[in-house]
Amino acid sequence: MLSIKNLSKTYSNGKQALDGVSLEISQGMFGLLGPNGAGKSTLMRTLATLQDADTGSAFLNDIDILNDKENLRQVLGYLPQEFGTYPRISALRMLDHFAVLKGVVNKGERKELVNHLLNEVNLWDSRKMAVSNYSGGMKQRFGIAQALIGDPKLVIVDEPTAGLDPEERRRFHNLLADIGSNTVIILSTHIVDDVSDLCSDMAIMGNGKILINEKPKDVIAKLEGSVYSKVVERNELSDYEANYQVLFSTLVGGRTKLNIVADSDPGAGFCATQVNLEDVYFSTLRDNQISIAA
Ligand SMILES: Nc1ncnc2c1ncn2[C@@H]1O[C@H](COP(=O)(O)OP(=O)(O)OP(=O)(O)O)[C@@H](O)[C@H]1O
Ligand SMILES: [Mg+2]
To answer: Distance (Å, rounded) from C-alpha 94 to C-alpha 45?
Structure first.
């Protein structure tokens, strides 16, 4: 169990990135959704002991994350949003090096572990290639292999699927889904489908605050019956925005489909539609007056 209480952080330029964040996260996959600048990476880096919070506490079971960084690092697997530049050394050598850092000192044991991980993330055939030459998806899979060294109890992956093609994304999802069920896994993302596909629990963050923290199926059930959609012309969008509570619009086969939220049937050609997590996401941002840059 990961227990976060009242974490706040203001950067030296005056930007408050975390504003009283509290969360209780159980074992399994937890989705942290939020638009750009919400504070997701700040929270992830704080939990990964890479930066300090101004106030608050965070415990992984009985490990005091903010004050006992060494112990936390022993059980942490972290895939940062930006990995920096990848060195021109092979995946094999790099994983071996990371395993040494994680304290796997026995050479035979290390070899077995590294080989196992390379197979697991489907990089065995390219194990001798420099990681700097990997494609985006391969780098992410390498990143998860690196994060899984040493049987971590807390795995943090920050925006892992941004920029991946659908096939790589699916592969990455499967990898995450295979991590043991006694591990707390936090997946931070602004891609709603990542959370719908993978997470049994989640929170939505905006402006440094937790806006909601509920299971996807429960928040979806709450909105059920109040989302309506209609296919409209693109040039009518601003009229609709002025007259309805617009959640979002998507292009479907070249046409613009608009989702709105309404207490009762709005008529005007709108049809009641099945609620999905995207509706919840946008209605939460809307309720909190958080706009997302298109
Ligand atoms: N080192 C820093 N110094 C000053 N401000 C920062 C720093 N890092 C982040 N910020 C600001 O803090 C806020 C939260 O940033 P953060 O990177 O945590 O958001 P995020 O939710 O991860 O966004 P994204 O989806 O773009 O990755 C943003 O306004 C950002 O500009
Ligand atoms: Mg981020």
So the answer is: 22
Is ligand 1 within 6 A of the CB of residue 289? no
* Cβ–Cβ under 8 Å, residues 48 and 76: yes
The Cα 191–Cα 197 span in angstroms is 11
Q: Whose CA is nearest to atom 2 of ligand 1?
A: 11
Q: Is the CB of 17 under 6 A from ligand 1?
A: yes
Paired strand residues for 57: 5
Tens-level pLDDT at each residue, the chain (294 residues) = 999 999 999 999 999 999 999 999 999 999 999 999 999 999 999 999 999 999 999 999 999 999 999 999 999 999 888 777 777 899 999 999 999 988 889 999 999 999 999 998 889 999 999 999 998 888 888 988 999 998 899 999 998 887 788 888 888 888 888 887 889 999 999 889 899 989 999 999 999 999 999 999 999 999 999 999 999 998 898 999 999 999 999 998 888 999 999 999 999 999 999 999 999 999 999 999 998 754
- Find out whether 231 and 268 touch, Cβ atoms under 8 Å: no
Nearest 5°: CA angle at 101, between 97 and 46? 120
Neighbours of 264 (CB within 10 A): 8
